[in-house]
Design brief:
113 residues, mainly beta, seven-stranded mixed beta sheet, 12 strands, 0% helix
Length: 113
């Protein structure tokens, strides 16, 4: 199984930006990679995903504010978050899988105030 390590979370003011990173332990070319988040008392939700062919998808709540670039050489996917809102506060998790995302990182906390 691939292992995923997230970083880049922290406190940020509303309107600010953060860039989360997710580094995979092995080659992930062809994998679907995604970012998910879970706020206290809420279910985990998909935020953004990028397929092996580069096709991206975003939750309606983050469209136009977040992007999910990836670098297959570095086995890394990022979540660039701009114009952050208080409702973006959550634990953010990176996920990966072939076809279906089935592996998760430990998460990184994002707090927008």
């Amino acid at each position: 199984h691939v292992q995923l390590v997230e970083s880049g979370g922290g406190p940020v003011q509303a309107g600010g930006s953060l860039r989360l990173s997710c580094v995979a332990s092995k080659y992930t070319n062809g994998y679907c990679m995604g970012w998910f988040r879970q706020a206290p008392g809420k279910e985990r939700e998909s935020v953004a995903a990028i397929e092996g062919d580069g096709t991206t998808s975003y939750a309606d709540s983050v469209k136009g504010r977040f992007t999910i670039p990836r670098d297959n050489v570095k086995n890394t996917v990022w979540l660039q978050m701009d114009s952050l809102k208080s409702e973006d506060t959550a634990m953010y998790y990176c996920g990966a899988g072939v076809g279906v995302i089935d592996t998760w990182g430990q998460g990184t906390q994002v707090t927008v105030s």
